[in-house]
Amino acid sequence: TVSVLYWPLTWNETMSAVALDRPPHPQANSSVCGFPAFNRTVDVLELVCEAVGYENALALLALRACSHAWADAVSGVMHRGSVEAEMSPTVARMCMAARLCVVSQHYGAVQGWLTVVPATVLQNEDPDRFVDDVRVLMRIVPRPTALHFDNYEASVCEDVAALLTASAAATLTSIRATNTIVSCRAAAVLARMPALRSLTFTGGDTVSDYTLLEIARGCPQLEHLDVSHTYGTVTNRGVTAIAQHCQQLRYLDVRFTGSDVTDAAVAAVARHCPLLEHLRVAFTSGSVTDASLTVVAAFCPNLRFLDASNTSISDVAIEAIARQCPELAHLEVPHSTGRVTNASICCVADCCPALQFLDIANTRVTADAVRAVAQRCTKLRHLDMSMTCDGSADVALAALAAHATQLQYVNVRQTNASNESVAALRRARPEITIPPLEF
C-alpha cells in the first residue's frame, strides 16, 4: 500500500491537503474497551513514522494520506523533534520535510505550534508561484513570529508584504532575506508592522539605501539590523538614517560592506543608539577605524559584542572599549595589521571580567597578555591566539592550564607551541578542542 501511495506531491498539492479538511478515518475516533483510539493507535503509528525518518518525506506523505490517524501520527513526529515553536534543525534543512511539517499543523494532539518558518518552506524555482506560496503559508501558519527568505528568484514584492501584514502584523517580529531582493515598496509596507523588531538583509542586491530609508521612516522600534555582505549596495546614507530614526537599535552588522560604510555611519549609530550591545564591522576595507569605535565606547556602555576583524583599529580603540564597556563578553580583533598589542589586551583583562570569547590571531600580542586574560577573565571559553605570542606560546598554554577553568577551545596554530604543552593543557581540560598545530 505504501509503495502505491509513494508519489511526489507538488508544493500546492501538499499545502492544499490541509485545506481539504478531510473527515477522519472512521476508526480514528473510535474507542475499544473504554480507551481512546489515539492512545492505542496513533502512538504506535508515530513510532512507525519515526522509523521511516524525516529524510523519507515522500513516504511520510504517503502514510499521511492513508487516514486521519496516520495524519495525526506524522504531525506528532514532526512536533516531537521541535524546539519550542521551531522545526527541528534536521527537518528545517530539507525542503519537502519542512513543507510537510507546515501542512501537519492542523493535525495531531498538538496543533498550530509552528511560528518560526525556515527558508526551505518557501523555496520555489517558479517566481510566478511565490506569492501563491506565501498566501497558502499564511492560511496554515497565520501568526508566524519569524520568516526567512533565501535565494529566491522572485523578490519580496509589495504583494508579499501585504499578505504578511494582513495576517501577521501583530506577531511577526523577525524577517530575514538572504540573496533575495526586497523592493522599496515592500519595505515600506513591512516597516509598518508594529511587532517587527529584527531585519536581516544579506547578500548582494538584497537591499539598497532606499530600502533602509523606508525601514527607518516606518519602523522606529527596530532593534536588530544585519546588512552584511551587501558589498556596496548599502552605504553611510542608509545606515545613518537607521541610526537617526531607530534609536532602540541593539544589534548592527555591517561586515563585508566594502568601503561604503565608514566611521561617519558607525559614529552616528553610537550617538543615536545608546542601547547598542552587538556591533560587527569586520572586513570594511579600512573605512572603520579608531575614530568611530572610540565614539562607540563613549556612548554605548552596554556593548557586549565587538567584531573588528581585518580592520585597521589599534590599541586606542580597544582600550577605550575595555574601560567604558565593562560588560564586554566577545571581542574579535584578528589580522589588525600589527596595531593590537599587549597594552590593549591587558586592559581588557583588567576591565572586562565577563569576557568569554577572544580572537587575537595574527596580532602582536604575547604570552604576558594571554596570562593576564587567563588569570582575570575566569569565564573565558574561546581563545584564538594563532600566529601570535612571539615565541612564548608554551608560557601562554601553561597559564591557560592553570587558570582558565572554563576554556573550551584554543587555537595555537602557527605559533611555537610544543606538543608537550598542548598535551598538558589537554590533561588539565579533557573536554577542550585544540585544532592540530599543522594544517
- The number of helices is 18
Radius of gyration: 26 Å
Biggest sheet overview: 12 strands, parallel
**Mean pLDDT score, rounded?**
89
Q: In which range does the helix fraction lie?
A: 40-55%
Task: Give the oligomeric state of the chains in this entry, treating copies of one chain as homo and distinct chains as hetero.
Answer: single chain
What structural class should be given to the helix and strand makeup? alpha/beta
Strand order of the largest sheet: 3-4-5-6-7-8-9-10-11-12-13-14
Q: State the total count of DSSP E strands.
A: 14
Separation of the first and last Cα atoms: 53 Å
User: Stretches where pLDDT falls below 50 for ≥5 residues?
Assistant: 1-11, 15-38
* Inertia-based shape: globular
Residues in β-strands, percent: 5-15%
In short:
The chain is an alpha/beta fold and 439 residues long. 41% of the residues lie in helices and 10% in strands. The termini are far apart.
Report on this model:
It is built from 18 helices and 14 strands. With about 450 residues, the chain is of the alpha/beta class. A 12-stranded parallel beta sheet has the order 3-4-5-6-7-8-9-10-11-12-13-14, with no helix packed on it. The chain has a two-stranded antiparallel ribbon with strand order 1-2. Strand 4 (about 145-150), helix 8 (about 160-170) and strand 5 (about 175-180) form a beta-alpha-beta unit. Mean pLDDT is about 90; it is low at about 1-10 and about 15-40.
Q: How are the secondary structure elements laid out?
A:
Blueprint (H helix, E strand, L loop, with lengths): L10 H10 L10 E2 L2 E2 H16 L4 H8 L3 H13 L8 H4 L2 H9 L12 E2 L12 H11 L5 E5 L7 H11 L5 E5 L5 H7 L7 E5 L6 H10 L5 E3 L9 H10 L5 E3 L9 H10 L5 E3 L9 H10 L5 E3 L7 H10 L5 E3 L9 H10 L5 E3 L7 H10 L5 E3 L8 H11 L5 E3 L7 H10 L11
Parallel strand pairs: 3-4, 4-5, 5-6, 6-7, 7-8, 8-9, 9-10, 10-11, 11-12, 12-13, 13-14
Antiparallel strand pairs: 1-2
Helix pairs in contact: 1-6, 1-7, 2-4, 3-4, 7-8, 8-9, 9-10, 10-11, 11-12, 12-13, 13-14, 14-15, 15-16, 16-17, 17-18
